[in-house]
Each structure stands twice: as C-alpha cells, then as structure tokens.
C-alpha cells in the first residue's frame, strides 16, 4: 500500500521561475511589457513550440492535426501557425461528449488528476452543462498575473479596496480577478459576487460603509447599479471610487463609457478576456486600445467567411493561442468574437505592445437580414445613447409565414427607463436610430423596466444574452 501524502500548494510552483517567465506588475513594465518586436516574436515562437508539443499528446489535437496531414516536427516556428486548423467551442463540446468527463483535449487520467494540483472551472454556460476546463497551479497564477497587469496599468494599488461583482463559483472571471488583485498587487478584494449573491442595494451600502475605491464589474451591471442608486436616492459621487475595471463591450462612439464615468465620477477601463486564456488584453490609463499580454497569448484576426488572416486594423474573428498553458493546451481557438489588432507602438504609459480594438460583437450571433449582416450587440450603442432607455434590450429573431412567403422577423425589444416614457414616440425614435446604426430597418417593441431580465439573464449569469433565436 502506498502512503498518500497531501500536496502543498506553495510547493506546486517554482515561484521565482514563474515571475521571471511571466513578470507581474512592477516587473512587466520594464521587461516583456516593452520588448522589441523581434525579441517578442522569438519568445512567442519558443513558447508556441512547447505548447504544440503538449498538444500532440492529446487525442483532440493529434486527430485533428493528422487529418490535415500534419506530423510532429512539421510546425517549426510561429510562422507555421496557419497550417494548424482552428477549433471553436462547439468542437470542445464534442470533445467533452466523446471522452467524458473532461474531454479528449485535456489530460484527465486518474494518475494525472492525483498527481497534478488542479481545479475545475467552467465557462458561463446558458444551456446544458457549461464547458469544463482544468486549471493547474501554473495556469491559475499566470491568469492572476494577466489580470494584475491590467489592474496595475489602470491604477489599482495595494491600498485599494476592490469590489468584485462577479461570483466566485464555477466561472473563471471572478477567480482571475481575485488572484490578480490579491496575489499579484496586494490590493484588498471585496468579493460581493453578482447581484444574485449580494443585492444591488447592498452592494452600494457595503461600498459606502467599507470604503470601496475600485470595482471590477461588467458594464451592464454597472449600469444596473447606476439605476438602483438613482431609484433609491443613493449619491454615487459620495463613494471613494478611483477607477472601475470593466468589460465595456461595443462602444464605438464612447457614449456608453462616458455615461458611466459621469454617473460614477471615475474612469471606466475596458478589458478583453476569455474563460480558457484569462484577461488577455487591457486598456491603460491612456484609454487608446487594449494592450495585449503578448508573452501569454498569440492573437490572429481572420476573415469570418474565408478564415484567411486579415491585415492589422481590420475586424474579424479573434483566434487565440495560449502560450502558457499545457493542461489543456489551447491552440488556435476561434473565439467568434469580432475585434481588430493594431500595430505595435510605444504607448504614453511606457508599454510597447500590439493593441486590441474594443469588442465589436459575436460572429456566431450574426443574423442575415435582407442581405445585411446584423449583430445583436451592435444595437447597444443606440440603446446606451438614449436617456429614455435603461440599457436593457434583447433581439428576437423568428420566422414568419410559410413556404415561399417565409421570412425572418427581427425585433429589438428595448426597456424604457420608467412607465412615464411615451412608448410610441420612443419606439419611433429607436427604430430610426437603429436603422442608422445597423444599415437596415428593424422593428422595435418597448418593454417595461425589469421585464427582459428573464431573457437576458442579467444578474444571474456573468454574460448577458442579446439574441433570442426562435427560428425553427
Ligand atoms: Zn498604454
């Protein structure tokens, strides 16, 4: 009989090696945060080849790569990355179904699980089981470092109390944030969770009572807190808020950010992250595009239809390759998120990286309406701009008629701020604004406050749903 021994977390990593390879804030800004383009490319290439070697050991990658004629050794540098087929979350779902419980893309043998120091986290699934991902100590800490780089660049300091309104349950976002702020900056996290865990009224009371100076909050929830403050006569300007770390979403003309910043009297910073790879890009205080954590992730932007690489500055699907994680490796994951990458240049903050545009929508939520591509998230700007709206909306697509007269009906349901708003005038104005923004005429229905949450999942999920697809 073998004698089982506990595994101590502090012994699971070589901490000095970790911080040298993936510098946390305080080191990042003078090292990998401002490497020359050639040095960074060489570092990315070396890490990429290590991850490719990890991936060959797993059936998910081995089978897919062999199917396109690749053999171990064919990929010699990051310049060969386009030879590797991309995958989507649908492929991961299939991989999990074919090799339960964790899937053919991650190591899950009893021997591995007893030896490794791993946790189970998931994507925010809305139907069926959420997508499960294993995180070993290395992956968790690098994700913490990614978040910490973002928070530091946005002004978070050890004296800050940061209120985190993501729930520390299965979803990764809350944990990345907690670890980033706590392990790698030494700020003081306040893990209130989402509105389902701590009501919005209480969130504001705690912020006032305990002196919250920073927030990590989705823009949708920030808007919700703003409304609750207004409805309950709570003065947001009395809080000590210094900065808000957020995921703003589509906001080409900056209206959404401006309204939130005015309401909270503090800067709101945008970030981009994914469940498997963490917070991979972040704004600094310049608010001029998001710095990519290039030593942790390699990003490509490809054309939605052809899958071909797009030039810098053009918007397409974001393909992400993790340069740091082995269990599971993530190589050429088509996120189906629409963004653009901008050239490297020295930023006013001192960092020198490629930058990412703001998030522009989901390519898999695209609806083709009379020949025009319509993205539900593209409706957000018009909704954010209008003071009669409270920010909540959902697009409903359905089929009308039968046979030859079958057509798609696309309706945007928008909540009015209060029942005092004249629904008929508001509807007509909203239709005109959406026609301008989307380039195609859509129908609008005005809904009363609070009636759409059941469809959008606001408060319950870490993600907000903007498309209800009722087509058969
Ligand atoms: Zn910068």
TrEMBL record:
Domain of life: Bacteria
Any Pfam family the entry gives: AMP-binding_C_2
Ranges where the AMP-dependent ligase C-terminal domain occurs: 371-471
PANTHER family recorded: BLR5969 PROTEIN
Name under which the protein is recorded: AMP-dependent ligase C-terminal domain-containing protein
Species of origin: Microbaculum marinisediminis
